[in-house]
Design brief:
Layout: E1 8-15, E2 18-24, H1 34-42, E3 50-55, E4 64-70, E5 75-76, H2 80-94, E6 98-103, E7 106-112, E8 118-121, E9 147-148, E10 156-157, E11 160-163, E12 167-172, H3 182-190, E13 200-208, E14 211-218, E15 222-224, H4 228-240, E16 247-252, E17 255-261, E18 267-271, E19 274-281, E20 288-290
Parallel strand pairs: 2-3, 4-6, 12-13, 14-16
Antiparallel strand pairs: 1-2, 1-19, 3-4, 4-5, 6-7, 7-8, 8-18, 9-10, 11-12, 13-14, 14-15, 16-17, 17-18, 19-20
The chain binds the ligand N[C@@H](CCC[C@H](N)C(=O)O)C(=O)O.
Ligand LBFN2T5F is lined by residues 18, 49-50, 70, 76, 78-82, 166, 200, 218-221, 227-229.
């Protein structure tokens, strides 16, 4: 095993194929720099969607402060799949299942279940236009005026928008979600002037009251195999537009997530997390080494 002098332990993990790096920054005052995040993502073998940096707690009663960094070096307020990875790592380390965390978006609760699945209470959605945020006032965020494609035959239009701490737009479609060039439309919609802080862009096909298929172009990361907060936002938007119930299995390219928008307004997500390998990372530069595994 080779460790750089200023290195921190890191784990390459995934949550339904959402590529996650967990960086253990406990006991340190520094942060993973944007330059380091970009360098890690540019290095073969560590292409990722988010880094979940575990810091010492800032607020009594919480286990850790979690900072979330996209692969383009920008900070994100929330990451459902990454939170499941953090819970799984800490459960394996500490032998206890339940944790309360703080993120920039608020306090979250996560727990590893007996069957190995991880459930995270992602808090309450924010639905006012200024909370998402949008650049102009919309009284009803269940359907906003936004379209892409020809004016008389838009390819995607009239999304529902919601914040799960981070901004999401859900475009409802009737045909196969794979028939849309999300790689082409995603960047345009992510950076549309209506979203002053950019947005995560999803295409949703409702299959039944409790089933939905979802693809997401993530702000700051691009096309991903899964986006937990996008699935949460899609179920909130599905329920409040009466397309779905409040408990829905969301099928993402990487697999299924169970999302429940509880009556107490909290959105809870349940799914798997997987450890791939471990290593050491310099959080200032992004230089990393992979631990050697005994044969
Ligand atoms: N993969 C995440 C969402 C990550 C944050 C997003 N890219 C943003 O900038 O808001 C998830 O599982 O929720």
């Amino acid at each position: 095993m080779r460790h750089s002098v200023s290195g921190v332990p890191f784990l390459k993990m995934n949550g339904l194929g959402n590529q996650i790096i967990v960086a253990d920054m406990r006991g340190r005052a520094d942060r993973v720099t944007p330059a380091a995040a970009i360098a890690i993502n540019d290095t073969p073998g560590t292409k990722f969607d988010q880094i979940m940096a575990i810091h010492d707690p800032r607020t009594p009663g919480t286990a850790n402060y979690i900072e979330i960094i996209n692969s383009d070096g920008t900070r994100a307020q929330a990451c459902g799949n990454g939170m499941r990875c953090v819970v799984q790592f800490l459960t394996a380390e500490q032998g206890r299942q339940a944790f309360t965390f703080e993120t920039v978006a608020g306090i979250l609760f996560g727990e590893e279940l007996e069957d190995g699945m991880v459930t995270v209470d992602m808090g309450t959605p924010k639905l006012a236009w200024y909370d998402i945020p949008l650049a102009e006032e919309f009284m009803d965020t269940r359907q906003i005026e936004l379209q892409i494609g020809p004016i008389d035959a838009p390819v995607l239009h009239s999304p529902s928008v919601a914040s799960m701490g981070n901004p999401h737009a859900t475009f409802w479609v009737n045909q196969d979600v794979w028939s849309y060039a999300l790689d082409r439309f995603g960047p345009m919609l992510e950076n549309h002037p209506i979203f002053p802080e950019r947005a995560n862009i999803s295409i949703a096909q409702v299959i039944g009251r409790d089933k939905m298929i979802l693809r997401t172009w993530e702000r700051g990361a691009g096309l991903t195999e899964a986006c937990g907060t996008a699935a949460c936002a899609a179920v909130v938007n599905g329920a409040r537009t009466r397309r779905t119930d409040r408990k829905v299995t969301v099928t993402l390219p990487g697999g299924d997530l169970l999302i429940e928008w509880r009556e107490d307004d909290h959105v809870v997500l349940t799914g798997p997390a997987e450890l791939e390998w471990t290593g050491t990372l310099d959080p200032a530069t992004g230089v990393w080494t992979r631990d050697e595994v005994a044969a």
